[in-house]
Amino acid sequence: MSKETAARIAVRDTLIELVEQNRQFSQAVQADQQLPIWIMSEAPEETPGGIRHLAAQTATRLTYVEQQNKQETARLTGLVGVSAGTMELGLALNQCREQFKEAIADFRLLFGDSIEAIEQASDDLRDGVLGGLQVKHLHFVQCYRQLKLFPEAPRRVGFSWAACHSGTVRLTAAEAISHFRKKYLASVAVNDDICLLEQMPADEIVVIRRTLAPHLRANITWSKEIKVLRQVDPVAKKQYPAQINSPLPLFIQLNPGEPLPEFNRIRPFNPGARQERLQRSDARLVKINDNPHSRIYRYA
Hints:
By secondary structure, the chain is an alpha/beta fold.
């Protein structure tokens, strides 16, 4: 069997498994009707099937919906109580998502890492492997991202808005070229940036800056025992994070009758309510490409 055939089979098989695991988890979340739930929605009661249906469907959406921008992902912040059985299905789904991501990465490697090769691989996926499964509009970020699952409930979840509008990554010119080819869709601006980087010394430090929409963070408070464990165990520090981005609900394992952790019922983002911040370090960045859509900067 050729590498190409093996890669195609891996994509097909992991996608089939992903769809099935997705379906099982979604149904299980909706079946946990006896457990509490809260989502940040202006009119959740108007959603067919109620807020559990909305939470389950949003968290497990694999494809684009009508009029969804290609740069947007499905979002619905909240807290969802789930049973132990549902938590197990969620953990299995996260593992399946990681396997699908790896299968797609292996498939694309066969085509090389240039912009043209990535476009060819994407076309082949849509029209070949995925088209044969009648799935041609997968939203890969939604397929890959890990659900936030907490088998042990935190003491408190404090939601807050991160209202800064840009994110930066500091790389060498050589690393930046690889970063663009792997992370960005082909465009005139991206190609211009790559050409500029190829003319620079490979070890020169540059900064890639991208615009970010305001996003929600969950600031998590744990029990005293877990706080102590986080200080001495790196694995526990990752298992019990203190802060995470929360575009999707946090799924928390609860027993019947247990309440959700204490939390603040944060409201949708209000641009007029933003507070002044101290000057960020990236305010010292200067653009080194005249293209207005360029993302390449260096420190002044």
